Amino acid sequence: MPASSVNRIFPVLATILTLLAFASETTGGADDGFRDDARTKADFESRLGAIFESGGIPTGSETMKQLALEKMGPISLPAVSPALSTLTAAYERARLATLILGHLYLCGKCDKYHANLAGGVIISPDGLALTNYHVLDNREAIVFGAMTAEGQVFAIDEVLASSKKDDIALIRLRGAKNLPFVSLSATVATGDEVFVISHPDGFFHSFTKGYLSRKYLTPNGKTPRLQITADFAKGSSGAGIFNLGGSLVGLATATNSIYYEKEAGTPGHLQMVIKSGVPISTISKWFSETPQ
Fold first, then answer.
1. Residue 167 catalytic?
2. Among the options 37, 134, 137, 284, which is catalytic?
3. Active site residue: 167, 199, 236, 281, which one?
4. pLDDT tens, residue by residue, 176-220
5. Does residue 162 have an active-site annotation?
6. What is the pTM of this model?
7. What is the DSSP letter of 220?
8. DSSP codes joined into one string, 10-48
9. Which of 154, 228, 238, 278 could pair covalently with 119 via S-S, beta carbons 3.0-4.6 A apart?
10. Which tens digits make up the pLDDT trace of 98-156?
11. Domains with residue ranges and CATH for the chain
């Protein structure tokens, strides 16, 4: 090969290697299908901390005061996204609309911000999102914020509506524009297939699939709940329960472990874990149009 050709190839190879290195650095591995959860959490902490220190955003206590007001709509629904025909397409839409949502706090042993993280779902391109009430009900919070699947970090600007009984809150992300979002669906029947994208114990954007096992009322408050077989665990509160068309039918909210017996007051022989969610139908009153 002529020397002139070699000289032309080397700069091209250098550019390709630089791009590959950048891709590996930003995704945490050589294959962009692999997630670096520790780096994701660290990015949330550093970026939301920088936003908070720049000033002008609500503190954690201010957000909690808004939450406690339990305001209700009417709020206009965004444009409806068409149902998708494949699970792969529905998953991708839902993943892009799934937030890592939580707050920063100080441990008292160092001066670094630490994050306590859960989930949320974007329902409009200008940053309306749903999460659980209890995710925002935390007195140690310095500031609340959210990270998109693509790494954008926003402060929570306002709590627009909330219900402690239903365990759900509607928030707005400050400065959000043109975000991917999912439509709401109040229609779901026992036996329907559903999937969840959640963050169990910091394993961010975990996908599980199952069925709507039943609809039930809580024993004390008689609050509507969805019981599903798709798995989730602690850290998943506020994450989405989706139908196979990619619409949001509920939010993961609680688990209840069933044991066969207790020995000396200690649970033993775990038999089943009930996974419960808040149905979208419970908040239809917040919106000027009823979710289909």
1. yes
2. 134
3. 167
4. 999 999 999 999 999 999 999 999 999 999 999 999 999 999 998
5. no
6. 0.86
7. T
8. HHHHHHHHHHHHHHHHHHTSSSTTS--HHHHHHHHHHHH
9. 238
10. 999 999 999 989 999 999 999 999 999 999 999 999 999 999 999 999 999 999 999 99
11. 37-173 (2.40.10.10), 193-286 (2.40.10.10)
